[in-house]
Amino acid sequence: MNEKEITCIVCPIGCKILVKTDGKEFELVDGNKCKSGIDYARSEALDPRRMLASSVLVKNGLWPLVSVKTNKPVPKDKIFKVMKEIKKAEIDAPVKLGQIIIKNVLNTGIDIIATKNIEKL
Amino acid sequence: MKNFHVAIIGGGVIGSAIAWELSKYKLDVVVFEKGLDVCSGTSKANSGVIHSGINSTPGTLKARFCVEGNKMFTDLAEKLGFSLKWTGKYVIAKNPLESQEIDRLIKVGKKNNVLGLEIHTGAVVKKRESNLSCFEALWVPTAGVILPYEFTIVLAENAVKNNVNFLLETKVTNIKKYEKGFKIETNKGVFSSNILINSGGLSCREIVSMVEKPDFKVYPCRGEYLVLDKNYSNLINSMIYPVPPAKLGVLGVHITPTIEGNILIGPSAEFIDDPDDKKTTLHMMKTLLKEAKEIIPSIPENAIISAYSGIRCKLLSPQQSGIADYRIEESKRTPGLINLLGIESPGLTSAPAIAKEVTKLISKFYNLEFKKDFKIIKKQPRFSNLKENQQFNLIKKDEKYGRIICRCEQITEAEVIKALSNLLHARSISSVQYRCRAGMGRCQGGFCTQHLLRIMQEKFGMKIDEIKMKSPDSYLFTGYNRELKK
Amino acid sequence: MTNENVDVAVIGSGPAGLAAAVSAKENGANYVVIIDRNSWKGGILPQCIHDGFGLEETGNSMTGPEYIQMYIDDAKKHNIDFLTETMVINIDKNKTITAVNKNGIYKINAESIILSMGCREKTRWNIMVPGDRPSGIYTAGVAQAFINLYNIIPGKNIVILGSGDVGLIMARRLKLEGLNVLGVLEILPHASGLPRNVVQCLDDYEIPLYLNHTVTHIDGRERLESVTIAQIDNKKNIVKGSEKKIKCDTLLLSFGLIPENELSKDAGIKIDNITGGPVVDQTYETNIPGIYACGNCLQVYDTVDVLSKSAKLVGKNAVVKLIKNKKSIFVKPGKNIRYVIPQIINKKGLINFTMRVNKPAQNVTLKIKADEKEIYKKKQRWVNPANMIELTLEITHEILKKGKTLVVNLHE
């Protein structure tokens, strides 16, 4: 296994966590300040994922866009594919915070949800 | 093809002053301006100083028009409502050697009939300008400041009100002289006129060469400026000038309190090849700050909110001293062509007097007759400068006066709408800035740009990719991010 | 002219203003009004659509709009009054606020005023980037509003100057939209933004970060055409031969933020030259009794969690007023410390300090001396200018009575 330094993104401190990994196996070496750091480092080494935030076009809204996010982290290699779906989407106002805009996007089991209320024009 | 009595090339301060002066008479007048708005060149990028006349060689046109123009400003400002402040100026001598230069300026000033000149000792100066230390200084009470773009715009819009045609984004590409006058080819079509006035500023030689072989050259000379935050407006009360440097025919880096409360530092003087090269340079920015600090040591380094440069139109090279007089004359080879060449400082001060002179030249061709219905639109004071009860009354009349959309300069939505509804139909971001000052403060548009965009789109039906900053290709955005499916 | 008397007037409805207002209500204020210049509530957060907010405070990572909705709902629950699209144009020493909106002019007499005006972005001229003055140059936050609120794209080929958090976040945002982000330049040898943003905004998308680099010239008479970039040595001089031209139509500037205190200055409030915010005591009260400051107009925070936490204290202090000592001691930044808040202490008790270092360092010791006596000592594995240091320390009656200054030092 190779040694690898992972900068933790869980909180603003940004611990530099040293791990050993070959993509399948994972071993913590040093550097984390909390338990979340271990979880992050493991997932980053074995199955890197990111939360994705963007916006979707709103029809007849007080604002032209509603901000959205994925309800779960997206595998890194799928981010641009999911973005493509987000760009295609449209939604009628009013939009409620938490409302699902795209369900089970690209069969990932991940939903795209609104993160803002948008009133009708 | 419509024929005009007079065609003016260039909507700078000279072209606009002439247009306004001629708009008093029964004449058909057209102005061609290549920019998106009037005042797009040298006229907007200078110190905004109304000079007294102590710096111009007696007997020259510069001296004559400067002193004549200076005397016209109080009345003009009253009539047209543009801002004018007679701040007065100090020319400071740091040592007895520089005092000799002050003696020379007094002699020049007296010959030019500049009134009220006094020599103040360092101690007297200190009382009036506490941040200034010098050996002695020349006090010039008849020097003042205006906003050069405001003045130019007020002149141009008043000319339009009195039926002068201003054609923006109209570049003259060729001129043909024929028996009765001129055929003027532009990107917007061909026009004809009996008299052609060349107030093209830095382009004056290019214009002449379309008609005849020019007998002069233009040497562009760039001047850079720094603008300080209004928080430091109390650093000085009047303009502070060093004694003029021996060379280049310029006045040296001076410190000018503007109408708006900002302080200007500059201009530098640098002869360049390209008359459109209005860049600022790190070297010069540092030099300006250094030279200004030699005059006022307490100028803070972090007070700069903007920098710009303007280009002087000089008719002599630095090797030839750089000091030439204006040429304001009908061409000897092309009757009807009135050239205004080498109009540099004190051009802003001279503009109204030059306009009178040009009108006199035109009166040789026509029997000028006053319009009975000549109108004046007086610029209204800004909302933020009004008394509270006046502000209240305005809001009651139009609630958009209650919506302040420029935080730094406290400009209201109503004022922005008024600026965008201007008679010239100029609708760039800088057209708004120069008419009502939204976006010219310390955040440089950070807060108000979104409101300008909203108003431009909703109220004026402009498309997002049609919005320009200042010139035809200075688009702000490439478009919308998400577009509705049809 | 409308005259109103209120217990607490809050200027700005961003996270600091909302948190302070809610806390003022919770601590017994009857009439709390929040005045905001925008048509919406929440200040900048509705445009910060990325996640990472509220983790420390709630345990959940939220997006900016979600985080602020939590406080807007809270404010509604507490019947807090809002004056939106209303610009405060003056605050005077007697705590009367003059504000303007489309209904007219308001005179609001407040028992306490809480300043929470936030901050603004540094512009091109704050760091004197020379060259032409074309269109296509935006501060990162303004560009963020364009793309996230107004659906507008500023341009297609983008260079980002300055590695502040907003710049890093915008790099990712634009890249996700399929725009060409050519790189982020940072004049310092280290990124200004948080480490996690370097990872998830730049590294993830292979956007290059050029440390020790800056833009030396801007080209384009009308629209931006290119920037010249160069390497900078440790004396801030351009490394000869390192200059190169990059074609681009957009330059985003992320130089950092300046607390917005024009109203404070006009009111006669003393400003700390380093923080750019008011000088405050341990209750966040300014030199004008009854006027308090919180949020980014006090100091620029790195996370909203810490900002809201201290704004809540301010909301309480503005209502529950304790009698303070006449004698004060002054808190001074020492070795490798840029600033410390509060700057003044005039009451014994547990006091929250926030501070920043000047430059990154490892294995250092933070020491606080009351005059010559050491009263605090803590080892820090690492410190970074981007990461604010927080600590709580008991200031005794003894220290307050005898001392003149507290000095905070960071020892290698």
Offer a quick outline of the entry.
The complex is a heterotrimer of chains A (121), B (486) and C (412). Chain B has 486 residues and is an alpha+beta fold.
List keywords for this structure.
heterotrimer; B: 486 residues; alpha+beta; FAD/NAD(P)-binding domain; D-Amino Acid Oxidase, Chain A, domain 2; Arc Repressor Mutant, subunit A; 3 domains; eight-stranded mixed β-sheet; five-stranded antiparallel β-sheet; 12 helices; C: 412 residues; alpha/beta; Immunoglobulin-like; seven-stranded mixed β-sheet; five-stranded parallel β-sheet; 28 strands
Plain-language structure description:
The complex is a heterotrimer of chains A (121), B (486) and C (412). Chain A has 121 residues and is an alpha+beta fold. Chain A has 2 domains: 46 residues, no CATH class; 62 residues, CPE0013-like fold, CATH 3.10.530. Chain A is built from 2 helices and 10 strands. In chain A, the strands form 3 sheets. In chain A, strands 8-5-6-10-9 form a 5-stranded mixed beta sheet. In chain A, strands 1-2-3 form a 3-stranded antiparallel beta sheet, with helices on one face. Chain A is elongated. The mean pLDDT of chain A is 93. The two termini of chain B are 44 Å apart. The longest helix of chain B is centred in the first third of the chain and has 20 residues. Chain B folds into 3 domains: 215 residues, FAD/NAD(P)-binding domain, CATH 3.50.50; 162 residues, D-Amino Acid Oxidase, subunit A, domain 2 (D-Amino Acid Oxidase, Chain A, domain 2); 84 residues, Arc Repressor Mutant, subunit A, CATH 1.10.10. With 486 residues, chain B is α+β, with helices and mostly antiparallel strands. Chain C is of the alpha/beta class. Chain C is built from 9 helices and 28 strands. In chain C, the strands form 7 sheets. In chain C, strands 1, 2, 5, 6, 7, 8 and 20 form a 7-stranded mixed beta sheet that branches. Chain C has a 5-stranded parallel beta sheet with strand order 10-18-12-13-14. In chain C, helix 5 runs parallel beside helix 6. Classes of the chains: A alpha+beta (121), B alpha+beta (486), C alpha/beta (412).
How are the elements arranged and paired?
The complex is a heterotrimer of chains A (121), B (486) and C (412).
Chain A lengths: L1 E6 L8 E6 L4 E5 L4 H12 L2 E2 L2 E7 L5 E6 L3 E2 L3 H10 L1 E3 L7 E3 L9 E3 L7
Parallel strand pairs in A: 5-8
Antiparallel strand pairs in A: 1-2, 2-3, 4-7, 5-6, 6-10, 9-10
Chain B lengths: L2 E7 L3 H10 L6 E4 L16 E2 L10 H20 L3 E2 L3 E5 L2 H16 L6 E4 H7 L7 E5 L3 E3 L1 H14 L3 E3 L4 E7 L2 E6 L2 E10 L5 H6 L9 E10 L10 E4 L11 E4 L5 E4 L3 E2 L10 H14 L8 E11 L12 E4 L6 E5 L5 H16 L25 H10 L6 E3 L4 E2 H8 L8 H8 L12 H10 L20 E2 L6
Helix pairs in contact in B: 1-5, 1-8, 2-8, 10-11, 10-12
Chain C lengths: L1 E10 L3 H12 L5 E4 L15 E3 L1 H4 L3 E2 H14 L3 E3 L3 E5 L4 E6 L2 E12 L3 E3 L15 E3 H9 L3 E2 L3 E5 L3 H12 L3 E7 L8 H8 L6 E3 L1 E7 L6 E6 L12 E4 L2 E4 L3 E3 L2 H6 L23 E3 L10 H14 L11 E5 L3 E5 L2 E2 L3 E9 L3 E10 L2 E11 L5 E7 L1 H6 L2 E7 L1
Helix pairs in contact in C: 1-3, 1-8, 5-6
